[in-house]
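re: that complex we talked abt at group meeting.

here r the seqs, copy pasted straight from the sheet so there may be weird spacing, ignore it
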Amino acid sequence: MIAFVIRRMIQAALVLLAVALISFLLFRYVGDPVNQMVGVDTSIEDRARLRQELGLNDPVIVQFLRFVGNALRFNFGISYQFKQPVIDLIEERFPATMELSIVSALLALLVGIPMGVYTALRRDSWLSKIFLTVSLIGVSLPTFLIGILLIFVFSVTLKWLPSFGRGEVVDLGFWTTGLLTASGLQALILPAITLGLFQMTLVMRLVRSEMLEVLRTDYIKFARARGLTSRAVNFGHALRNTLVPVITIVGLQFGSIIAFAIITETVFEWPGMGLLFLKAVQNADIPIMAAYLLLVAAIFVTINLAVDLLYVAVDPRIRIEARTT
Amino acid sequence: MTAESMPSLEVRRGLLAALRDSDVLYSFRRSRVTMVAAAVTLIMVLGAVFAPWIAPYDPFDVAQLNLLDSHLPPAWLAGGDPRFLLGTDDQGRDVFSTILYGARISLLVGVLSVLLAATLGIVLGLIAGYAGGAIDAAIMRAADVQLTFPAILIALLIDGVVRALFGDGRHEQVVFWVLVLAIGLSFWVQYARTVRGSTLVEKSKEYVLAARLIGLHPAAILFRHILPNVMGPVLVIATINLALAIILEATLSFLGVGLPPTQPSLGTLIQVGNNFLFSGEWWIAIFPGITLAVLVLAVNLLGDWLRDALNPKLR
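got the structure back, here u go
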């Protein structure tokens, strides 16, 4: 067990190190860091001095280790466009992205699971067929198009909801939240639906297929034979057994929710990290790109690791496998 | 047995004859949704390919543009002009014509990037599966690391790096190929994993052993003998990937890091139209949007059908 945990942690660290190497190569070799920091009229001597101060003349391996050391202390350098420390920029926008992503994930679960259960239990009803058709269309509509359509219907035509920004936010010192004001909540609705819709169809299809699988097993047949009510069988036995894989997938998907927030944030001008990253790509602002890449990788790897470890804790079969391999 | 899973010798007796006898065609005739999807895809592809002959106007010919014709609604609405069926955009370009040309670029980027991803994935997958050992480990670990990130992030990153390397002026000339490269590189992993898996199964079979015994070069074994037998799943992935690639290209163009308005894809058209949504000129964005959604939906349905048709387990 402990050996398994340690091995998984080493793997996670190696992935992060690989991503750090890519970030470092971007940072160091794409464009010249010195040219980006100084004006056109800086003399060659000043440039050389800056180069020396930044340690750009050191051996590459030393530079890489310094980059990793700085990254561990959340020091990602100065943004080329904003002339501010990258970490300050990210810190400012981190809560916006997290709130949007978490609300979207919850929305996907709270709507997707009941829809999945319904379509599995009432396979041939017309409502199930509508759900399945809508989910196929949901998969085929690009995220940005869903956002535009929602804005067109609810902001432009009906004028019910705002189409951009975060509304009023409350500053809690370490975190800014839009969840405590009416305008903040209103502003959250359309972006959260846009971001959550794809995951919702995913959850629905997953719950449906898992449910259908479980309903065919012997212990469900046995439970029915024992004379349990179908409510107890469907929800007490079947649904409980389908939720483990579902929550795992959504957990693993959380990373892509954060990445897809780039699109949603652009459509709704949501002041989050995704919008910051996109501006960085448009303006070739490498320090922000490198930092964002590392941050997303860290979130991904942490979630994967947590899911793996939780699995081992929850499922005895995997524990035995882990011990034998 | 489907044509795809037959030994390559039998396939030679004629692809058409094999297709006629195959279950694939049978299941195609059985599914009405699939036939509609195929028809829609075909119409769109033909429309895109023959855009210069079908489109009533050439949206890139400045001489044909007249600013007096700009912002016209579709022909059936009040103020519409029968010359412009779906209305005109802010520069007086016929929306129907720009959609035809836009679909052309969208499909072209999609197909080329799928070809790039498939080629790269197949070659790396074959090598990883056949060689094993350190080469296998290196390729598959790289695939694992890449899988850590969604395709959109990889594509954005590649785009950003090229932008930094080229500078804005020269970037615009190469942006088409940058998109193909970015989208292609972000999708190769799936092919590599599938092909590697099938190669591992195939390489222990007797025909591979026989080929090795007569001293064939490994490259000949890989590409002439193993490759035809692992292509089935690749076709399915490629179809579904085409839909994803078209979405990804449209997304990148919409985000403003893809094709510029001078060379618009469907995504660019939607981005341009998005600016006029608030003034009520919905047709500039919505018609390209519908085209994109229908195209992706049709290709997705074809992919779903192909996956079921080629998978004997589901029959």
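couple things i noticed - Chain B touches chain A through 38 residues (CB under 8 Å). Confidence is low (pLDDT under 50) at residues 1-11 of chain B.
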